[in-house]
């Protein structure tokens, strides 16, 4: 590599673009004083990265830019470019020429370029690291450089030797490594602090998580027992409902029949009022007999209907059992399909796992083979190193012998002035150290105060955060409670709506009719309850007054009613009451006009309920004699006044019946009645809307609180980080103060050592000359063994092994995931198998129950045949008596006695009818109670997200009392747990993940620190070896060059601290011919210049630089010394381009090229080039 050209534009006095081309050999730049010669060497120093403007004779950055002349304006920028020949690829760039440029603007902005591409100064320093052109090198020696080199401290002089030894690249790597090491150490401390914070939180979070898990387990157990309790209560309620429904159907039938009998008797009384008493007595006797037979017939018919209903119920139960059996069979089939599917997935996963294990085995085999190859490569490289080391050891031994034979007992006496200067420097340093300690104390006080402020602020923010979290939890609980209540209301409304749509308050027969698809369904007007509108005020009164009538059906004609009756008989679907509109007529009772005017009477029930005109006659017939009163007292008073001829119902549901009987007491819940249900649906819709608004408000508040908590959490984290940073700063200041105190003590001890140290060494060079010649011969005879710097083959093998290990890691992860999936599939198979066994057992049990139920149905059917025959026999007996009674009526004339008989019969039937109605009221109350119980338990199941079918698998063994005791025990355990954080498990797992992450980060950082420390140590070893080798060679060459330069005399170099070569300074020891050893400061200017030249040439002998600039260092030499100076440079110009700035003619005589610098234009430098060889050839 050599310097081809230097291009300047706008740099100092070179206003125009100027290109200076450099040829091989020695180039001498000449010109008058002030023409700008030294600006060339300044330009080279500047483009190579000089940052101190004073070293290039300036005060500020813009001083290097052309400042203008009398006729030219100033430039806005300065550019300098160096162009190198890189044909031998000494620089690591794939170009034959390499250019390095630097540009600066007047605003101070500076740019660097490599091959016209922008780069950093660091990139240029790294590019030139092995060329000897670094910042501390001696390739540019200016007018003031001689004195600075000789008067420099040993530690400062060492920088030049490091550049020549070529260890700057190692220093740069070491600095980078130390910086990374320091950063890793800081990161490690920060991770440790964060880890400590999380570890403090882990113990309470662990307890909260454990408590939360216990709470969830107890709640799940409690839920199972609650489901079991609901199922037991549901079964009990339905069993009782079935019993009372059968009783209710029987009594309703009797009630209808007795009502008909009363109507018939009333008609007969009117007809027989004028008949004689004799006929009445006969008819009365016949009526008694007829009543007995009819009672017997009705009893038989009632028993028959009961058995019929029992048969129907058993058939329904059988159908339900068959449906449940089919469901279980279908569920079992689904479980078998699921089992087969999971088994197939398990087999697939096992195949995948086997493939992954095969790939792992292959990779491990590859790794073993590569490890063997790596071991072989490393062994070969170690053998080569051993051979090289043997030669190197012998060579080093010879060099060491040469050193000790060259340097023997040379007397060194430290001059008193130098000791005084050292003492003075130490005094100044001690004063500075005291000042620095005081400054650090103040900084420590300030930082400690800031740390306390941060701590107070952090504590305050944490308290705010805790309060916000508590408020967030409360909002969350309120929100969940509101949502639960809204869901409960929604479920309740849907359930009520479903009940309404399914005619829940209607009898089985009415439901069957309304759900049929027969043609006559279009002629059904509807149930009476759906044909009226009940104001809220009269809801209770209407419910009591109408009773079971609400489910009775209104049809258009009697023919339609007859068709439906026939259909019911054919379907064996029970019986109900029909009201054909064409046969329903009402009779106005004149007395009602007087009754409704009584105080406290609200009116006639038929008039108080809004309805369509088409059902007016029907409602008047049914409710035209029912009055509504404010209270029971009013009802009793009015009934007594009008001889108990009307039925009066109060607003709160109490009844005064016609005839004087009273019905009253507590009523079933409003929401379980037909009209109450409809009112509740409307009320629930309204409340649901209100709750929806409340939930939205709570949701908005919850989101705001979540955001606030997140912000506060982030602030708390930031405060903790700031507090930690401040804590680290305080600790750093404390450590720095400790270091400064130690340094202060060290300097004081050093001061004592300097005052006490006087060492004398003697050296005799002539006596070892023969020994040196012999050593040189032995060194020449050693064969050099070439050893590559790195074992490239082993490195490549290691890279392959690393890649295989990465692939193995990935395969192991995939295999672990596959094993986890296999384990999950196996667990799923076990679960499906258990469910299948349970399903099979259930199906077996259902089969047994179905067989029993079929046998029971057959027995009831046989009994029904027998009972039917008994009914037919009783009916024939009754018909015979009826026929006899008719005959008596035709023959008898005593109608008065017959009238009395009918009157007594009317009272008897009325008594029985009242008794039946009273029983019906009691049964209705009980039925409603058990319906409420059923609805309550179904709602309980729905609130838990279950249906009756899905809840059955959860049923536990035990009675209801045993289950309730277990629930109470669980409640006690939950109470003992106290307050539970619902997010405890999630928060614990989150913090656990963070802790694992920080542990991983800590392990990575520690590994990185160990690796970096190893790299730094390797760099130190390499630097130490290379520096010592270079130093020994330069030392020998310096002694030889000094002898030639001064025609005798002695000179050698020595490290100030041989035990620590990497931090040791370099001292120059000179004894000029005919003189005693003296301080460098006492030497003349010429002697100093020659000494620097000798040092420079010693450097060139060891590590030749591509070029070297010498700026007028021959100014202080006489002609004879200039001659020696020129000849020595002439010896080295074959390996290094020398560019010398000089006024000496003797120097110009050695030049291969002359470059003349002049100022043809005032203030602007220009260039003239002359190749001396061309003129010599011409001559």
UniProtKB/TrEMBL annotation:
Q: Which residues form the SMC hinge domain?
A: 522-639
Q: Which domain of life is it from?
A: Bacteria
Task: Identify the Pfam families for this entry.
Answer: SMC_hinge, SMC_N
- Give the molecular function GO annotations: ATP binding; ATP hydrolysis activity; DNA binding
Which InterPro entries does the record associate with it? P-loop_NTPase (IPR027417), RecF/RecN/SMC_N (IPR003395), SMC (IPR024704), SMC_hinge (IPR010935), SMC_hinge_sf (IPR036277), SMC_prok (IPR011890)
Q: Which residues form the signal peptide?
A: none
SUPFAM superfamilies with a match to the protein in the record: Myosin rod fragments (SSF90257), P-loop containing nucleoside triphosphate hydrolases (SSF52540), Smc hinge domain (SSF75553)
Q: Where in the cell is it found?
A: Cytoplasm
Q: Which UniProt keywords apply?
A: ATP-binding, Coiled coil, Cytoplasm, DNA-binding, Nucleotide-binding
> Which spans of this chain does the record mark as coiled coil?
283-380, 406-471
One term under GO cellular component: cytoplasm
Q: Offer one example of a GO biological process linked to this entry.
A: DNA replication
Residues at which ATP binds: 32-39
State how it assembles.
Homodimer.
Read off the NCBIfam families from this record.
Answer: SMC_prok_B
**What role is this protein assigned?**
Required for chromosome condensation and partitioning.
Entry's family note: Belongs to the SMC family.
The record's note on its domains = Contains large globular domains required for ATP hydrolysis at each terminus and a third globular domain forming a flexible hinge near the middle of the molecule. These domains are separated by coiled-coil structures.
Q: Output this protein's name.
A: Chromosome partition protein Smc
What taxonomic ancestry is recorded? Bacteria, Bacillati, Bacillota, Negativicutes, Veillonellales
């Amino acid at each position: 590599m050599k310097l081809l050209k230097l291009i300047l534009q706008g740099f100092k006095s070179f206003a125009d673009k100027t290109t200076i081309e450099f040829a091989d050999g020695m180039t001498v730049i000449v010109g008058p004083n002030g023409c700008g010669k030294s600006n060339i060497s300044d330009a080279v120093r500047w483009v190579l990265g000089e940052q101190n403007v004073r070293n290039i004779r300036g005060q500020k950055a813009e001083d290097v830019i052309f400042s203008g002349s009398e006729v030219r304006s100033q430039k806005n920028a300065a550019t300098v470019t160096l162009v190198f020949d890189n044909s031998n690829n000494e620089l690591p760039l794939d170009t034959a020429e390499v250019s390095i440029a630097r540009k600066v603007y007047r605003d101070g902005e500076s740019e660097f370029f490599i091959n016209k591409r922008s780069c950093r100064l660091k990139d240029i320093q790294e590019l030139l690291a092995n060329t000897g052109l670094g910042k501390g090198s001696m390739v540019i020696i200016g007018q003031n450089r001689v004195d600075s080199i000789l008067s420099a401290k040993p530690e400062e002089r060492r920088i030049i030797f490091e550049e020549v030894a070529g260890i700057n690249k190692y220093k740069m790597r070491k600095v980078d490594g130390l910086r990374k090491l320091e950063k890793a150490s800081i990161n490690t401390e920060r991770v440790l602090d964060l880890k400590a914070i999380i570890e403090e939180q882990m113990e309470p979070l662990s307890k909260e998580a454990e408590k939360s898990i216990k709470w969830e387990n107890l709640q799940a157990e409690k839920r199972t027992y609650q489901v079991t309790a609901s199922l037991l209560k549901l079964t009990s309620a339905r069993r009782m409902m079935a019993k009372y429904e059968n009783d209710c159907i029987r009594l309703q039938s009797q009630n209808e029949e007795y009502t008909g009998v009363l109507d018939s008797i009333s008609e007969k009384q009117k007809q027989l009022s004028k008949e004689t008493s004799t006929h009445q007595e006969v008819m009365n006797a016949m009526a008694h007999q007829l009543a007995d037979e009819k009672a017997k017939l009705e009893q038989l018919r009632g028993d028959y209907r009961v058995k019929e209903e029992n048969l129907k119920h058993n058939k329904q139960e059988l159908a339900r059992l068959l449906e449940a059996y089919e469901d279980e069979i279908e569920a079992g089939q689904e479980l078998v399909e699921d089992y087969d599917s999971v088994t197939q997935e398990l087999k697939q996963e096992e195949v995948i796992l086997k493939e992954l294990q095969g790939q792992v085995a292959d990779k491990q085999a590859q790794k073993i083979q590569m490890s063997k190859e790596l071991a072989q490569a490393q062994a070969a490289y170690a053998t080569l190193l051993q051979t090289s080391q043997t030669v190197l050891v012998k060579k080093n031994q010879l060099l060491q012998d040469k050193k000790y034979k060259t340097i023997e007992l040379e007397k060194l006496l430290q001059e008193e002035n130098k000791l005084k200067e050292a003492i003075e420097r130490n005094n100044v340093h001690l004063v500075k150290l005291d000042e620095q300690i005081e400054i650090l104390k103040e900084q420590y006080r300030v930082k400690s105060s800031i740390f306390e402020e941060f701590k107070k602020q952090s504590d305050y923010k944490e308290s705010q955060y805790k309060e916000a979290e508590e408020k967030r939890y409360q909002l969350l609980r309120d929100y969940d409670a509101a949502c639960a209540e809204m869901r409960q209301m929604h479920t309740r409304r849907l359930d009520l709506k479903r009940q309404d749509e399914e005619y829940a308050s209607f009898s089985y027969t009415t439901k069957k009719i309304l759900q049929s698809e027969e043609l006559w369904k279009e002629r059904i007007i509807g149930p009476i309850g759906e044909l009226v509108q009940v104001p809220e005020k009269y809801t209770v009164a209407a419910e009591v007054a109408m009773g079971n009538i609400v489910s009775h059906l209104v049809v258009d004609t009697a023919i339609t009613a007859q068709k439906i009756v026939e259909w019911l008989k054919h379907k064996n679907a029970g019986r109900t009451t029909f009201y054909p509109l064409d046969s329903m007529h009402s009779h106005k009772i004149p007395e009602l006009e007087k009754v409704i005017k009584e105080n406290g009477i609200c009116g006639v029930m038929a008039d108080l309920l809004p309805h369509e005109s088409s059902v007016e006659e029907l409602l008047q017939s049914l409710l035209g004699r029912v009055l509504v009163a404010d209270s029971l007292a009013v009802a009793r008073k009015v009934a007594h006044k009008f001889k108990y001829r009307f039925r009066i119902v109060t607003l709160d549901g109490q009844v005064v019946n016609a005839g004087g009987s009273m019905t009253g007491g507590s009523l079933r819940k409003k929401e379980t009645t037909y009209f109450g249900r409809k009112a509740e649906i409307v009320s629930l819709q309204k409340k649901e809307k209100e709750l929806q608004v409340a939930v939205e408000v709570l949701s908005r508040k919850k989101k705001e609180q979540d955001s606030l908590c997140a912000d506060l959490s982030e602030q708390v984290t930031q405060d903790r980080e700031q507090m930690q940073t401040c804590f680290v700063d305080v600790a750093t200041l404390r450590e720095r103060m400790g270091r400064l105190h130690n340094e202060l003590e060290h300097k004081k001890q050093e001061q004592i050592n300097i005052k006490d140290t006087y060492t004398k060494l003697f050296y005799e060079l002539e006596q070892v000359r023969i020994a040196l010649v012999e050593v040189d011969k032995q060194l020449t005879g050693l064969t050099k063994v070439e050893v590559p710097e790195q074992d490239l083959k082993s490195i490549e093998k290691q890279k392959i092994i690393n890649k295989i290990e990465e692939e193995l890691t990935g395969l192991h992860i995939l295999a672990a995931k596959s094993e986890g999936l296999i384990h999950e599939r196996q667990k799923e198979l076990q679960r499906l198998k258990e469910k299948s066994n349970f399903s099979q057992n259930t199906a077996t049990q259902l089969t047994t129950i179905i067989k029993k139920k079929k046998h029971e149905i057959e027995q009831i059917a046989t009994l029904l045949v027998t009972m039917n025959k008994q009914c037919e026999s009783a009916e024939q007996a009754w018909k015979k008596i009826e026929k006899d009674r008719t005959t008596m009526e035709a023959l008898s004339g005593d109608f008065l006695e017959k009238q009395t008989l009918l009157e007594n019969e009317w009272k008897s039937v009325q008594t029985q009818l009242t008794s039946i109605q009273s029983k019906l009221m009691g049964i209705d109350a009980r039925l409603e109670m058990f319906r409420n119980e059923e609805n309550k338990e179904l709602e309980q199941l729905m609130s838990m997200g279950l249906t009756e079918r899905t809840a059955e698998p959860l049923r536990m063994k035990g009675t209801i009392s045993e289950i309730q005791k277990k629930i109470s025990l669980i409640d006690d355990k939950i109470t003992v747990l106290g307050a539970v954080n619902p997010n405890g498990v999630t928060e614990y797992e989150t913090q656990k993940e963070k802790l694992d992450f920080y542990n991983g980060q800590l392990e990575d950082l520690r590994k990185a620190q160990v690796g970096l420390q190893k790299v730094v140590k390797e760099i130190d070893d390499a630097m130490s070896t290379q520096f010592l080798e270079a130093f020994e060679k330069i030392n020998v060459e310096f002694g030889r060059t000094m002898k030639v330069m001064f025609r005798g005399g002695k000179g050698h170099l020595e490290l100030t601290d041989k035990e620590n070569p990497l931090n040791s300074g370099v001292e120059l020891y000179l004894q000029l011919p005919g003189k005693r050893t003296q301080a460098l400061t006492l030497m003349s200017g010429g002697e100093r210049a020659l000494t620097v030249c000798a040092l420079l040439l010693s450097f060139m002998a060891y590590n030749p630089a591509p070029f070297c600039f010498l700026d007028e260092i021959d100014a202080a030499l006489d002609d004879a010394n200039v001659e020696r100076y020129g000849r020595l440079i002439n010896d080295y110009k074959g390996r290094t381009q020398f560019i010398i700035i000089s006024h000496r003619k003797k120097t110009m005589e050695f030049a291969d090229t002359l470059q003349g610098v002049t100022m043809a234009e005032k203030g602007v430098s220009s260039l003239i080039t002359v190749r001396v060889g061309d003129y010599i050839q011409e001559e």
